[in-house]
Write a structure and sequence with these properties.
167 residues; alpha+beta; DNA Binding (I), subunit A; 4 helices; 16% helix
Length: 167
């Protein structure tokens, strides 16, 4: 009853993974339908229910797209642990505000880059143009890729692939 079941939105977009118990309850109360049933049946004294592998909700559930949380570690990961001014790879990096905070720069993805301590000191409280330094690439907000909870099960449950791989 704790085997994972792929939960799809009404438009077949993969949403999450739930337990077999939760999936059977959703199907039983009429909130979902069984799409794939390759696991047999659950028998009770009064009824026989399919043991689902994939279920689909009967109505659309609006869900915000996941975002990468803004943190020092994620800025370094986005920039591949490389100083965005001189290009040297390092594990001893600092986070630099492209437009300094005291000049109205915000603490957002598009204003933060990884910088080695030497480049960060050289730039100081100036903009890159004022310091005559250029960025290797512009700052951007990274996208979440492959962090959905169902991706780790794809090797084990091959019947899920046709629902997951398009998204």
């Amino acid at each position: 009853m704790h085997t994972p079941v792929l939960l799809l939105n009404h438009n077949y977009q993969p949403l999450d993974v739930c337990s077999t118990r939760r999936a059977v309850v959703l199907v039983y109360v009429g909130k979902a339908e069984v799409i794939e049933n390759g696991r047999g049946f659950i028998r009770s004294p009064s009824s026989v229910l399919p043991r689902p592998s994939v279920i689909r909700l009967n109505r659309i559930v609006q869900r915000p797209y996941p975002r990468v949380r803004l943190s020092k570690k994620e800025v370094f990961r986005r920039d591949n642990y490389t100083c965005q001014y001189c290009g040297s790879p390092s594990r001893q990096l600092t986070v630099d505000h492209i437009v300094p905070r005291h000049r109205g720069g915000r603490h957002t993805w598009d204003n933060l880059v990884s910088a080695c301590p030497a480049c960060n000191r050289r730039k100081g409280g100036r903009t890159p143009e004022e310091a005559r330094m250029s960025l290797l690439r512009p700052a951007f907000e990274p996208r979440v890729n492959g962090q959905y909870p169902f991706r780790k099960y794809l090797g084990q449950y091959r019947e899920w692939r046709k629902f997951v791989e398009g998204w």
